[in-house]
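Methods — Computational structure assignment.
A single polypeptide chain was analysed. Its primary sequence is given first, followed by the predicted tertiary structure written as structure tokens.
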Amino acid sequence: MPPFTPRTAFPTLDSLPRSYYLGHHAAGLSRMRSMLSQIDLVIECRDYRIPLTSRNPMFENALVGKERVVVYTKHDLGMGSKSTPEDETRHTLLTTLHKPSPVLFTHHKSSSSIRTLLQHIRTTAARSQNLTGSHLMVVGMPNVGKSSLLNALRQVSLNKGKAAYTGAQPGVTRKIGTGVKIIDAEEETGAGSVSLLDTPGVFIPYVPDASAMLKLALCGSVKDNVIPPFTLADYLLFHLNLQSPGLYSDYSEPTNDVMALLDATARKTGRLMKGGEPDWESTAMWMVQRWRNGHLGRFCLDEVTEASLQSYSDGIEEAPRSVSQMRKAGKEVLRARSKAKRSAAVGG
């Protein structure tokens, strides 16, 4: 039997949805702008598994001028049990990318990483010297872990339970609530209390890159009914094979055929319908959830190298930042695609 060779590229899917910009996203962003004068620090959350793709350029436009700290959440899901030289290089490159804004890497179950963020917050609060205490705002794409971060800050600092609802699907937080206290006032030092505003995740109006949409969907930034489960499972298989086919060896031999993997997995895990037929759709989503929870490999989907960061930086300069600009860019792409199809039809 010849050695297994993984795919080096995922097929382009022109029919893939490229938007998940909902009404409460627009309302949330507008509300953030209106409250900005009351905010001392913006905590921008990005998913460590997709550190470049989970950037929303609209935040940079809407929250310009405010002190910011970039927090890469779900750090534990983007790396193995031990730090590697590749992880260290990624950390260094991302930290350099955001200068002069500080960069922190967290996951909500790591009290040490949460304490590091709390110390940064205390330092910022001490500089503000606000008599009513300091007010912070946490922002980010849908389902990057903003509410989980708020709860972790509150638990580590105050030893109190959850103040924000969380869930596996995006859209649990749909509006900006009242500030939640995460640090008590200190009588000895005179430092005021610190409260944090949780905000709804805000998607971008149009995603020009199909692979970016797939990454966002695989990480749970869009609801699971937006992208077909077989497509998500196939994209996951593509990345699993690039890492190591051994990640799914409990269920199947190495393969590039997602249906073969789903068939074998369904039979191994008992996900069968009447008559003993495999339930491929539920198996596809089961595998996706297994990866999201760190049980089917822990790795980043974005490549973070000096070359990829240069391309990313170039893209930032050219990328539209407002809703109207993004929608216009999306229409232009659709027109070009339609024109190419008509030309191909005429040529055929």
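Note: Strands lie at 41-47, 68-73, 103-105, 134-140, 180-183, 194-198.
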